[in-house]
Design goal:
Helices cover 59% and strands 5% of the residues. The chain folds into two domains: 76 residues, RNA polymerase sigma factor, region 2, helix turn helix motif (Rna Polymerase Sigma Factor, Chain: A); 60 residues, Winged helix-like DNA-binding domain superfamily/Winged helix DNA-binding domain (Arc Repressor Mutant, subunit A). It is built from seven helices and two strands. Strand 1 and strand 2 form a beta hairpin. A two-stranded antiparallel sheet has the order 1-2. By secondary structure, it is mainly α. Helix 1 packs antiparallel against helix 2 and helix 3 runs parallel beside helix 6. The chain starts with a strand and ends in a 7-residue tail after the last helix. The longest helix has 23 residues.
């Protein structure tokens, strides 16, 4: 059944004869839709493609196990996946710091050859990466979640474990830190 609904000047045609499209909420669909988002987040946090690939695979493995046991996302899947990824990133960074004192310089050269893998980052994100190094890790992370992943304050707060006002405060401090960098004003 078709009918028209409208206001004084605008008419909109509404088709009620077709059923609503079913939302594909299988884990496979979520994996296909969100793999890139999770991978890019991890890559920005760890800055090494090999580590990002490993952590992304582990994040989806854990997410699949949670999904299978009935502990899937209660809301949107992206914040849930990024929370899993964040915990793995923190573990990876801690492990790096623990083994950093081991003299493995001969096994791990300081200047690794570039593998030619284009991560698809724009000039802005290259600029951001350069200046965000001076920020504390938590501030850098909140800027990535806000401006690259385009998440709202509630989702970011869920991932970082802070309130929405805490997210806004952290973003403001991070932006102020970026603005205070003297290299920007040259």
């Amino acid at each position: 059944m078709d009918f028209e609904r409208g206001t004084e000047t605008v008419l909109e045609r509404v088709d009620t004869s077709r059923p609503m499209e079913a939302v594909d909420d299988t884990f496979e669909a979520i994996y296909r839709q969100r793999y890139r988002d999770v991978y890019r987040y991890i890559l920005l946090m760890l800055r090494r493609t090999e580590d990002a690939e490993d952590v992304t695979a582990e994040a989806f493995q854990r997410a699949y196990a949670a999904w299978g046991s009935g502990h899937g996302p209660t809301g949107q899947p992206l914040p849930w996946l990024l929370l899993i990824a964040r915990r793995l990133v923190i573990d990876r960074i801690r492990r790096r710091k623990l083994v950093a004192w081991i003299p493995l310089a001969a096994l791990n050269p300081a200047h690794e050859p570039h593998d030619g893998d284009d991560t698809g980052r724009t000039d802005f994100w290259l600029w951001f990466d350069r200046f965000a190094r001076d920020l504390p890790e938590r501030q850098r992370e909140v800027l990535i979640l806000r401006y690259q992943r385009d998440l709202d304050d509630e989702s970011i707060g869920e991932i970082l474990g802070i309130s929405t006002s805490g997210v806004r405060s952290l973003v403001a401090r991070a932006c102020a830190g970026l603005r205070s960098n003297p290299e920007i004003w040259r």
